[in-house]
What we know:
- The structure holds two protein chains of two kinds.
- By secondary structure, chain A is mainly alpha-helical.
- Chain A folds into two domains: about 1-270, no CATH class; about 275-490, no CATH class.
- Helices cover about 70% and strands about 5% of the residues of chain A.
- In chain A, strands 1-2 form a two-stranded antiparallel ribbon.
- In chain A, strand 1 (about 55-65) and strand 2 (about 70-75) form a beta hairpin.
- The two termini of chain A are about 35 Å apart.
- Chain B has a domain at about 280-480.
- Chain B has helices at about 5-25, 30-45, 65-95, 105-120, 125-145, 150-180, 185-195, 200-220, 225-235, 235-260, 270-290, 295-315, 325-355, 370, 375-385, 395-410, 410-435, 450-470, 470-475.
- Chain B starts with a helix and ends in a 10-residue tail after the last helix.
- Mean pLDDT of chain B is about 90; it is low at about 480-485.
- Chains A and B meet through strand 1, helix 5 and helix 6 of A and helix 15, helix 16 and helix 17 of B.
Amino acid sequence: MSVLEIVILLPILAALAVLFGAPARAASVGATLANLVIVLALSWQYAAKGSTGLAFTQAREVLANPAISFSVGADGVSLILALLTAIVMFAAVWQIQDRPAIFYVASLLIGGGALGAFLTTDVFFIYAFHELALIPTFLMIALHGHAEPIERKKVAWKATVYLGVGSLVLLAGLVWLVVEFSGGRDLTFDLEALRAQAKLTPLPVEKQGVIFFVLLLGFGTLVSLFPFHSWAAPAYATAPTPVAMLHAGVLKKFGLYGLLRIALPLLPQGANVPWVQNALLLMLLGNILVMGLVTIRASRLDDTLANSSVMHMGYIFLALAAGSEIALKGAVLLMFAHGVSIALLFALSGKMRNQLGTLEYSKLGGLASHAPAFTVLFAFGAFASIGLPGLSNFAGEAMVFAGSFTTFSGTLTNLHWTVILALWGVVMSAVYMLRAYRHIFHGSATTGLFMSDPALPQRLPLILMAATLLLTGCCPWLLLNLLKGALAAS
Amino acid sequence: MSVFTLEASLALLGLVLLLLEAFKPEISRRTLGYTAMAGTALALVLLPLCGTQLPEFMQPWHQIDTLALFYKGFALVITLLVLWLTLECAPYLTRFTLDGKLAEMFSLPLIVCAGMMWMASARDLVTIFITLELVTISFYVLVAFARKSALSLEAGVKYLILGALSTGVLVYGIAWIYGATGSMNFDAIGKALANPATSKSAALFGAAMLLVGLGFKVAAAPFHMWVPDVYQGAPTPVTTFLSVGSKAAGFVVLTRALDAFAAPGSIIGSEVQSLLLVGGSLTVLLGSLPAIFQTSVKRLLAYSSISHAGYLLLALACGSGGRFDIGSNGIVAFYLATYLPMTVLGFLALGLMRVNGQGEDLGDFQGLAKRSPLLALVITIAFASLAGLPLTAGFIGKMFVFLSLVDHGYWGALTCAVIAAAAGFYYYFRIILAMYTTEGSEKPALTLTPLTKAIACGLALVILALGVYPRPLQKVLTPPAAAVVVK
Lengths: 490, 487
């Protein structure tokens, strides 16, 4: 049994155990902590050996003709995302307080599904695990969201419809790939076999563009690519805290991961077809500029965070559009950094909502004097989100921008113009995050709204996430070492 | 011992139980029920041990191949479950019978089962007609069994009239086919249809009438109108039997008939396949779209059953010669095998609600997760599978159907199927959502016996096992490479 199978099954089994009456908190925290330790050890081992390509592989046949197997395996990209999942899942489970057991179950299922999607190498299971993670997301928003029952059901259905249709489009694209690249008579869903076939007999460039576009629409909807993004902000603002942390922080990265792991290697020319690239550039500018402006207009912290999380996806799409090795590596770093920072911010805003009952800027102020530790932790998240050097996001954003501008030869192409415009996103991030910080923590305290620092055990997951941001911000090579040989331009 | 002795013994056991109940009225329904279940279980155990040899005189109209054995096992399993479900629902059902007894509810299913098993082996139209009638006429009685319930009576009358009509159409079709090809035997019909001298229009008309008649039985559009009313009115165990057993029976017949009509080289092959494609596309849509508006879960399951018939028809329409070794007949069998546990679980939930004095509407499912967490969990798995969520059996079945459609390039039908599946996500998840809401959790909890819990969990595990590891079933259903049908 591969150790990766254990990593995937542990949270799912823990969720089942909790459903059947095991002590919820102990089982969940135990399973997620064990997972975190295992994934850290695996990553360390992978980096120490200087491995490239897939490691820890194992395959079990599930269906023949069409060939589907439960095959696991991890390269640097999957390990970084598994690490992100393990950190956020542990933090999300730990910070749950006085909630019914279903909160733990849902968190474990979302995390377990995400781990399954990142660590399996069969298209069937990659897709299946993502769906497994989506279901508890919808249920939790509809049942335990922060809104009136009718309102939160609306939000949940909206997300369901968008993500459901997105998944269907994605499925169509994946099946198309499978049919094109199976070679011979038998269909295969094995990603490695498909990649080998794609190297051997690449498709005509124009066709690559069309399939890439279908996949972009499918995966893009899952990542809230503009203009298919409108489900995301209300869903995150309404979702219960652990669900918001896990979905915005981890599960949303699935779409990007899919584009990196499936679309780019199988369709290496797909993103370079002019009409596809121009469409992608336009959409990602929508993410960065339009959503940036929308975020500035937000009047509540949860709105700001939710919209900012949509906006920041634009940078990663920029890296995908550029396709250079540096940009793609930066994108992976940024996925990790954004995941941790947004999860930290959602955890903090959840605590504020619990204690204060409101997140409206007009009602908040001066919290720094009541809750200094809380303020410092929030500052870590907010500054990371802006892209302050020394915190994780900076390394990723810098690599994405630099890597996207590499092919400059005197004339500015559409890609270059996009980079120039996208840079303004950094400014907008600074505007809304600093504004949120000032409104909430500085100024005079509003009477009647009092907040205290969380107790020490409750600070632990927050400190873990903040420390991760600092550590990977100061030493990005810790993650980059995992990416040796991966994502090289093909 | 050969398989047909099993079938004869089952029918005999049914008759014995019927007489026993008539002449010894004091016999308890538990004794009857458990005897019937024991007989069925015994037959299920003996089935794999039976040889496939047949006496010479039977060979022209009886065959025992992989598919026949699979469907025989299928019939036994669903009969066993229906008998158990009847016992489970007995406290509620007896309120609607005249003398507070349920005798025929235990004997008739055995006769239906014998009919379905025999049908699976049929290789000529007469055998098919006789076994189909054996099954259908028994169902007329079963559907109207709750005689004090107006709904059940209405359902019985509707089923009787439409069933008789469809039988008439079926016989008419058989007559035309006989006229066109000069034979009732499928092999001979297949040979005649490969001969260009055979009258195409007569054969096609006969085949179309046959498809219409069978369309009634499997609830294919546009002959599906009776389904919601009959399913709603019939006692829940009978609805389960109709929805799974009767449908499977209809598809066995269709499979056998299409092997003859749509074999490569048949003069009416492409027309028959187009009919199936159009019918299947219509059926998935007319099943799925109205289901969106249902508030009664029983009616919703009825529409869902129609839409599943549509997917099965589409699988059949792909015919032979596809990319997959399992073949379209195998895909149909696989789909039915996945359909059995999820549908039974859905109806089991309805039955348990009734027994515990609650209704069958969406509102009655509210808060079920708080009241009966285990039941809510297994129902969630069942509905997720009906919707076709990955990692459940339902997804693998649908995947086979969709991939076959892609393989043959039937894009129009594929579009209809995708729309229907998307709608399915909505209406199945509406029930799941209702179960987990906090409203309604003040209603009394359902009482479940340990046996009920065990069977429900077992069915849910089957759904998950088939969803995660379908290879063993695929192996069973894949016909041997050389001989497609055992001659």
